[in-house]
Amino acid sequence: MVSFIVRMRFAPEDSERVAEMLRELTAASLQEPGCLAYAPHTAEADAATVVLYERYRDRAAAEFHRTTPHFHKLVVGGLFQLMREREIENLTAVE
C-alpha cells in the first residue's frame, strides 16, 4: 500500500475554484481501480491550505493516477497553476 499527504496553499480568493476542482478530482480519482482513498480537506486554521490524503493499492496505482486525463486537466492544468506552495509527505502504514 502507498499512502501520502499533499499540503497545498492557495490564494484565499481562489478557494471556491480550488474546491470545485478538488470535488471533480476526488470523484474521478475514486473511480480508478487502484485508488483506495482520496480525501481533500481544508485546514481549520487557514481555509487557503488544502491537505489531501491519498492511498493506493501499490506504487503502480499511484503512478497510474498521475497519467489520467483528470489528473492532467485538474492538477497539472488547474491546481498547479494556482498553487503557491506544495509539500508531500510519504506515509508508512502501521500494521
Summarize the structure.
With 95 residues, the chain is α+β, with helices and mostly antiparallel strands. Helix content is 38%, strand content 37%. It has three helices and four strands.
Describe the structure.
By secondary structure, the chain is an alpha+beta fold. The chain has a single domain (2-91), classed as Alpha-Beta Plaits. 38% of the residues lie in helices and 37% in strands. The protein has three helices and four strands. A four-stranded antiparallel β-sheet has the order 2-3-1-4. A hairpin with a 2-residue loop joins strand 2 and strand 3 (46-56). Helix 1 (15-29) packs antiparallel against helix 3. It is globular.
> Quaternary status of these chains?
single chain
Instruction: Give the biggest sheet.
Output: 4 strands, antiparallel
The total domain count is 1
Number of helices: 3
Instruction: Note the overall shape.
Output: globular
CATH class category: Alpha Beta
Radius of gyration: 13 Å
CATH topology (level 3) name? Alpha-Beta Plaits
Number of strands: 4
Protein structure class: alpha+beta
DSSP strand (E) fraction?
Answer: 35-45%
SSE topology sketch:
Elements: E1 2-9, H1 15-29, E2 35-43, E3 46-56, H2 59-65, H3 69-82, E4 85-91
Antiparallel strand pairs: 1-3, 1-4, 2-3
Helix pairs in contact: 1-3
